[in-house]
Amino acid sequence: MAPIQNVCGFFLLLCASVFPAQELCAQVDESRLPDTPSQSQVERHRDDPGSRREVSWRSLPKNFLQDQKGIWLFPAQLAKGRHWVPTLAISGLTAGLLVADPHAMPYFETHERNLDDINDVFDPLITTGEVIALPLSLMVAGYARHDTYQVSTALLAGEAYADVAVVDLAIKAVTRRKRPSDVAPGASYHDTFFAGGKSPFKGSSFPSGHAAGVFAVATVVASRYRHHKWVPWITYGFATAISLSRVTTRAHFPSDVFLGAALGYTITRYEVLRPRSDDGP
Predict the structure, then answer these.
(1) Which of 78, 145, 225, 244 could be 231's S-S partner, Cβ–Cβ 3.0 to 4.6 Å?
(2) Which pTM was predicted?
(3) What pLDDT is recorded for position 109?
């Protein structure tokens, strides 16, 4: 029951941050709720990244294909001399962690029992449910409150999750890195690439799909509700905790988690949330 209580506590805390207490507690006349966001709602979020994105169930497939085109044509942007600084920074940090991975993982192997209580809270099925529950709860609450901005946030979170999942699985299929948990006790953690299972869904470790997915969802929520003081802290803290748990449970190497988190953030912030020509003014 403890993991479930922790999940419920997190979403109660997030809802308290996104929705002011007076809005949650006030008795509202259902008949007066708007079917479209009021001008004041739009104005409140006008400076938040991605606030101008107009998204619906019908536009999601088109948006997804546009995102994928931008993602896979990213090398063309590098060829034009753009985005080299963040690309080199992420590549350099990933390379440094790859060197450190074989030296870091023996610690988590020998101390795995000491982390049992923490790892139970971050069971893979529980963390997957937590990541899905965040946009789902926003969508349910948005429909209940006739808040289309909130519904759009949930849809964008789903769009971002799908975008990073495609990239994650593609890299996994090529690298086929063995998971730390698949390395025999006491064996070396070197030479793990091209040694894992053939399926990118189970046998490949690099990068972390959990880290990519949770940072994609967190970036959408934190960006579109940036004016709520605690929302970015809570969502990014939540994403960081889940990502680090993938190392303590020996499901991933530190480099897997870092690259996954970097992909989740950058793809969402600079592709999913970027303004589109067909968005409103």
Answers:
(1) 225
(2) 0.82
(3) 85
Q: What is the mean pLDDT of the chain?
A: 82
- Find the domain containing 192 and state its range: 68-272
Angle between helices 148-175 and 254-267 (to 10 degrees): 140
- Give dist(CA 89, CA 49) in Å, integer: 23
Q: Confirm whether 196 is domain-assigned.
A: yes
* Rounded-to-integer distance, Cα 242 and Cα 236, Å: 10
pLDDT tens across 62-115, in order? 999 999 999 999 999 999 999 999 999 999 999 999 999 999 999 888 877 766
239-278 residues labelled b (16+ CB within 10 A) or e (exposed): bbbbbbbbbbbbbbbbbbbbbbbbbbbbbbbbbbbbeeee
Sign of CA dihedral 253, 123, 110, 189: negative
C-beta atoms surrounding 120 within 10 Å: 12
How far from each other are the two terminal CA atoms of the chain, in whole angstroms?
A: 48
| Residue 13 belongs to a domain | no
Dihedral sign of CA atoms 122, 123, 127, 130 in order: negative
Q: Give percent of the chain above pLDDT 90.
A: 57
Domain assignment of residue 15, yes or no? no
In angstroms, the CA 149 to CA 224 distance is 9
Q: What are the per-10-residue average pLDDT scores of the chain (281 residues)?
A: 46 47 39 44 58 84 95 95 95 98 91 65 76 92 91 95 96 93 90 81 86 96 90 94 90 96 96 77 51
Considering only the C-alpha atoms of the chain, give the largest distance between any 2 of them, rounded to a whole number of Å. Answer: 66
> Number of structural domains, the chain?
1
Decide if 6 is inside a domain.
no
